[in-house]
Fold:
Amino acid sequence: MPRFLSLFLLFFLFLTSGTCYALMSIDQEAQLGQQVLEMLRKKDVFITDPEITNYINRVGQRIVAHVGPHYFPFRFFVVQDNSINAFAVPGGLVFINSGLIEIVDREDELAGVIAHELAHVQCRHLAKRIEKLSHLNLATAAVTIAALLLSRGQGANIIATTTNALAITQALAYSRADEEEADRQAFEYLVKAGYDPRGMIEIFNKIVRHSWLLADNAPSYLLTHPTTPERISYLESLIKNYPPKESYHSHNLLLRRVQIRLRVITHDPGSLILRYRQCIRENPKDPLLHYGLALALARMHRYPEALKEMHYVLKALPKEDMFQVDLGRLYFEATEYKKALKIFKAYVIQHPQDPTARYFLARTYLALKQYPRALEIFKGLGPSLRYNPDYHYFLGQLYAQLGQKGQAHYQWAQYFLLTGDRQVALYHLRKAYQMLPQKDPLRARIALQLKSVQLDKNSRKGAPGKGE
Structure:
């Protein structure tokens, strides 16, 4: 999906603006970001595995804590796309491709990319560049972009090489001054957060190396973020003149674990099983190879084999109890709920703030029909998992089992809003509004959501009126 984000942005811009417009306001930036997010949700491109999303959010929020006052609450998303890319859009939304996460060797490299994207949002670079697009032939560009959005594979590549599409991409590309300002700001964020800013240089060099390897199919990050030797030299001079004092030492095993989970989700599990077995023959004592094999086997529902491999991992890494969560998840997927419950309960006692373990503990209680215990945990997970669609789906299932149908429909509505199906979300919002008691404060929140869900006139029939 190279280039697709920039094209989405412009597509929405054409739909929501006239032929001329002033610099976007903060509200317009937030609205544009939300529209992009909804389009991406409809394309079903997001990875929602809580282990992966929580890790990326943890890195991102560590940096956000040092960016100073900001217009938007920053949110981070992982896109299932093997191309090397990351991008931020107005409204504080940062998207990181799985392909980029897979090539980093240290958390400092990942932090460098995230800090750079945050800097672009803070400086409002994209909003300023969008303003200049008013001089393009909007009708021709809109047709080109709409065609690209409806195309896949070779057809998309053909359309993307048209003059207008290339002009759009070039118009959205950041200038050298933009990049230097973002680099300077990112350097400051990284130093304050305790990261090694050399990681930013390392990841930029990797992206450039990949452009050599891939020849004409350059990493998409280079399309809107030109990585020049001058920029790298500029960063090196910053480090030389302002030597950073690295104060945060990340646990590299956390990154490796996330990368393996990501690889198993985004690649064919059958091929991965063959590859991991071959690598294990060459390095039989590498626990991470056994970990990858366990996850790949689980994706093929070969649970006895997967559990055997996971037990090897735990034996090889006895001090790394985070792999207990993986063992519990395997038992859960194999429907051995009592074994899963025992593992999750013990782990949560030791790590009460771990949202992934608590989430699967709640789901295990739900599977075992211990509904009150499941509900207590689910309610506590709201702040950390409110943007995870699966959280709302299973919480809805739980409320349905408890006979609280209004609450169930409300949670299902949130699930469909987060997965991009506004029509079905509207149905569940209406059902929730009808079924909840008149004095339930949730009805007021639902009424506001109904008004904000923009659908055609026919789909809006039946929303609560003034007399309800």
